[in-house]
Amino acid sequence: MSIPAHLQIAIDGPAASGKTTVAHRLASQLRILYLDTGAMYRALAYLALQTRNEADNEGALLRLLEQHEIRVSSDATAPLGFRIFAGDRELDEAVLQSNEVTAVVSTIAAHPKVREAMVHAQRRIAQEGPVVMAGRDIGTVVLPLAQVKIFLTASVGARVERRRVQLEAAGVDVNEHRLAEEIEERDRLDRSRAVSPLVPAPDAHIVDSSSIGVERVLEEIAAIVERSR
Asked: Which of 95, 133, 135, 206 is 20 to 30 A distant from 217 in Cα terms?
């Protein structure tokens, strides 16, 4: 498949819907840049925890962003599909997906000025070339003119199982009941926040992955990408 120089593929969806796995695999298949924007908010959550700043203190969070730049570099060979740094420290999946980070990331991501700063950085990354970007507001806010918009969803039960496998593979201890509660609460916060709530873009293709595997999802999205050319 010939890839247009400015192709933008936005993949949105709720927590543990499989969007990061699918986006990573799709970008690798197309040999283009991949970014999970949620990792940037998790990096800021990590910084807030390390510096003992409150998650509801927007001013303090913005100062953290000024003092400790969150940087992303393309590296298809990295476990995440890219490398992410908070200040001078590179963060791995175990840190980003830790229970402590997960507990505060929704609060941090709800701040309007924090989201504004993140969106600016994400758009700058997208200008570097063709990209597959995963998140919760990519098709609605970050890349509203993306040629392909996917809203990937799945049942809560399917999402709990996927996140459990992901976390255990990253070496994180998992309490399945607590995990289900966290996912449902994350859904509530994402959908009800005043700024950039989690909703499908009007022109997004809805893909339900509850009962189909990654390969089938990839086939469906690849077909959508091909039709968009």
From this structure: 95
Q: Count of domains in the chain? A: 1
**What is the domain-level CATH number for residue 190?**
3.40.50.300
pTM of the model: 0.86
- The 8-class DSSP code of residue 204 comes to P
12 within 8 A of 203, measured Cβ to Cβ: no
Return the biggest CA–CA distance within the chain: 49
2 assigned to some structural domain: no
The Cβ of residue 54 has, within 10 Å, a number of other Cβ atoms equal to: 12
Helix (H), strand (E) counts: the chain? 9, 8
74 pLDDT tier (thresholds 50, 70, 90):
confident
What's the CA gap between 88 and 69, in Å, rounded? 8
- Closest Cα partner for 155 from 21, 37, 22, 18? 18
Q: Which residues contact 57 (CB under 8 A, 6 or more apart)?
A: none
Contacts for 72 with CB less than 8 Å, ≥ 6 apart: 35, 39, 40, 82, 83, 84, 85, 121, 125
Residue 67 has pLDDT above 80, yes or no: yes
Query: Would residue 228 count as lying in a domain?
Result: no
